Amino acid sequence: MTSAGRGLYLRRMKVDGTPYRTIWLGADGTTVQVIDQTLLPHQFVVRDWRTMEDAERGIRTMIVRGAPLIGAAAAYGMALAMARDDSDAMLTQAYTTLMASRPTAVNLRWALDDLRNLLAPLPHAKRADAAYRRAAEICDEDAEICRRIGENGLGLIRKLKPKGDRINALTHCNAGWLATVDWGTALAPIYQAHNAGIPIHVWVDETRPRNQGASLTAWELAKHGVPHTVIADNAGGHLMQRGQVDFCITGTDRTTRRGDVCNKIGTYLKALAAHDNGIPFYVGLPYPSIDWTIEDGAAIPIEERHASEVSRIAGRTASGEVVTVDVLPEGSPAANPAFDVTPARLVTALITERGVCPASEAGLLSLYPEQSQAA
């Protein structure tokens, strides 16, 4: 593996003083290493992926999650496949297998299409190196995209007039650096505001059923020193009514060309509450998360995950042991739709790497005019 396949590794986020990205190449230049997010916040464990199947399993079981990170992981999954077998048959098999791992996040399809289009015309012997190089580029591009989202969102935060001595943000699920390669989407403006000395505080929705807010967002905010408070999912509207929220900001797994936003289940309810209380509702949006082929959010496939995510929960006991327990009555069924769609009319603005725009087709095309021919 050449050095071009290793990426720039410009890490911004730190864990106990050590800089990390969410995905990177190991010392051997072929093994992919990732943070196992299913074990956070109680355990920090790095997993090794040596095969395409490892990558597929990691995406499907949410060892890695978050739309931008899923795309980067899929790209490295293709590289792992080519390192083992650079044939046309394996290229097709890897594409199909990885595409089926998660249905909602459009970044997965974007990355796989990118890799397949790059690799298919190449001589077989050049495919593995090209795949590793492109996967590293996707990671570096994602980090830069998120940094720019942070800069553009910071501009909006600077314009806010807080009701008290601090700016209160509310976020749902995890759209920080753990959901991307670095920086994050929704949290990137918050990190940049904090770094700039702006007194910002974050209300962190617990985000049932997987508790990505309580387990992941709170963990990474704490590691970066950002003031925050974890709240029950149903507390957000109450805080908005009491004037304790200055703006809401979330990420997105897929956004339609007219600005409908698909994100973690419960996002729609937060947007409704924000709209009712006249509070800005922003969405951090990297361009690979835009699905230009879909206009109506109702057409987005919504992943239905296993009921055990609702019926069981993991936690740490007083002795430090991490255990999983049942929380429902025996025999009670559970449904687990993983995402919902927030209509564009409830979104104040989309914050992208190219700037801020209204949540509309015209707004998105003003930033991405090259997509107008596909309209």
Question: Main β-sheet, in a few words?
Answer: 7 strands, mixed
Helix content: 25-40%
Number-wise, the strands total 18
CA-based gyration radius:
20 Å
User: Average pLDDT across residues?
Assistant: 94
Question: What is the name of the CATH topology of the largest domain?
Answer: Rossmann fold
In N-to-C order, the SSE pattern is EEEEEHHHHHEHEHEHEEEHEEHEEEEEH
Q: Tell me the name of the CATH class of the largest domain.
A: Alpha Beta
Categorize the overall geometry.
Answer: globular
Count every helix, treating DSSP H or I runs of 4 or more residues as helices: 11
- Output the structural class: alpha/beta
How many distinct domains? 2
What is the CATH homology-level superfamily of the largest domain?
Answer: Translation initiation factor eif-2b, domain 2
Poorly predicted runs: 1-9
How are strands sequenced across the largest beta sheet? 8-7-6-9-12-17-18
The termini sit apart by 41 Å
Return the CATH architecture of the largest domain.
Answer: 3-Layer(aba) Sandwich
Percent in strands = 15-25%
Please summarize what this structure is:
This protein is α/β, with parallel strands linked by helices. It has helices at residues 52-60, 67-84, 88-99, 106-119, 124-159, 187-195, 212-224, 236-241, 267-276, 308-311, 361-367, and strands at residues 13-15, 18-20, 23-25, 32-35, 46-49, 167-171, 200-205, 228-231, 247-250, 254-256, 261-264, 281-284, 290-291, 312-316, 322-326, 339-342, 349-352, 355-357.
